[in-house]
Amino acid sequence: MTIAEAAPRAQPLPLLVTVGLFRDPWHAHLFRMRLEAEGIPAFVAFQFHIGNDWLYSTALGGTRVQVWRHLARDAVEILARVRNGECRAELVDMFGDIDDPRCPHCGSTELKRRRSVAMIAMVILLLFSFALPAWGWVYICKKCGTKFESP
Fold first, then answer.
1. What is the largest CA-CA distance in the chain?
2. Residue ranges covered by each domain of the chain
3. Which residues contact 44 (CB under 8 A, 6 or more apart)?
4. 98-130 tens-digit pLDDT
């Protein structure tokens, strides 16, 4: 009998598996908290790359939510429920209207949003290497086309 045959086989360590990629770390943490509410321990990886170097974070694929390999199937099912809006529906049932912005003209909640001074901030960043924060949101109603600022 050789030494390799006599040595007990080591069990592989449980590895973390990425179940969700998010552009912003706060979205990753919200999903992590949802997983933990469902009883699945989760971890957020690459959350600090956004603050240090946003382009590098994008190259890495963003912020990742990871779970133990044997819990990955359940976590992916929860992510599908979150993206389908089932979890949001649960919150509306529990707390009522979540106070989403509505179109002042038709009352629709189907809105497209963008930063109010995004182009100006981008030009200043490119010309002067000075980051200017964008101030608010501009909403555009997908149903009637009304454009309005955030309330």
1. 83
2. 16-95, 111-149
3. 25, 28, 29, 32, 63, 64, 65, 66
4. 677 888 888 888 888 776 665 666 676 677 765
